[in-house]
Amino acid sequence: MIYAVIMAGGLGTRLKMDVEKPLYLFREKPLIDYVIDNLLKSSLIDDIFVAVSPNTSRTKEYLSSYNKVNIIDTLGNGYVDDLSFLVSRFEQGSPLDTLLFINADLPFISSECIDHVLKKYKDTNCDSLSVYIPSKFLDDLGVKYEYEYNGLVPSGLNILVSKDIIQEEEELIISRLEFAININSLDDVDVANLFF
To answer: pLDDT of 102-152, one tens digit each?
Structure first.
C-alpha cells in the first residue's frame, strides 16, 4: 500500500498571521485543500492521512468532517520527532508499506508530480527517497529558503518504507517550479501569486 501523510502540525510562525498555516487562504482556498486535492488525483496513492498536533487544533477541527482523509494526532515536538512517531505507527500495521510525506504548505505539487516521484522511488533499491531542489534554481526564481546542503534544498516531499529505522536514502534532484514554492511567509505568498 502507498499512504500519503500530510505534515500539518507545525507552528507556522514565519507566516506571522493569526491563522494556522494549513488553513491559510491562498487565493481563497486553504493551503491544505490544494495538497489534499492533488493527492486525491494521484493514480498511485491508496489512502491519505493528515498529521496534526496541539499546534493545529483548528486544522484538526476543519478536517474532522472531511471524509476523504484520516487524521493522526502527533505531539508536535518538531518535524523529525513527528516523522519518527508516524513511521513507527505505520510500522505496527505492515512494515512493507510506502509512506509519502508531504508538507501542508506545498500547493503546487500536482498529482502528476506525485506520481512521477513515486515511480522514481519504485525504480530505486533504497528504502527512502528525498526530493531536493538545486539552490541555484530557487535563487533564479527569487524563492527564499532556510536550509541548504551542498547546493540542494529539501522540497518537503519524502518517501520512506514503514520501518522505524535509519533508511538508506536516494536523492531525487528536481528543477521544477511545482516543487520550488512552499508557503512559509508572506514573501512566499507574493512569489506564489506571481507563478500561480
So the answer is: 999 999 999 999 999 999 999 998 999 999 999 999 999 888 898 999 999
Q: How far apart are CA 176 and CA 77, in angstroms?
A: 31
Length of the chain measured in residues: 196
The CATH number of the domain where 77 resides is what? 3.90.550.10
Q: What residues have CB less than 8 Å from 14, skipping those under 6 apart?
A: 184, 185
* Parent domain of 33: 2-195
Question: Rounded to an integer, what distance in angstroms lies between the CA atom of residue 94 and that of residue 45?
Answer: 16
Measured distance CA(196)–CA(3) in Å, rounded: 27
All three cell numbers of 141, joined, read 526564481
Is 0.85 surpassed by the pTM of this model? yes
The set of cell numbers assigned to 44 is: 498511485
Domains in the chain, number: 1
Which residues partner with 100 through β-bridges? 4, 159
Measured in degrees and rounded to the nearest 5, phi and psi for residue 30 equal: -60, 140
In the chain, which ranges are continuous DSSP H helix? 31-40, 57-63, 79-91, 111-122, 135-141, 177-180, 186-195
Grid cell, residue 125, equals 533499491
> 102: which strand partners?
6, 157
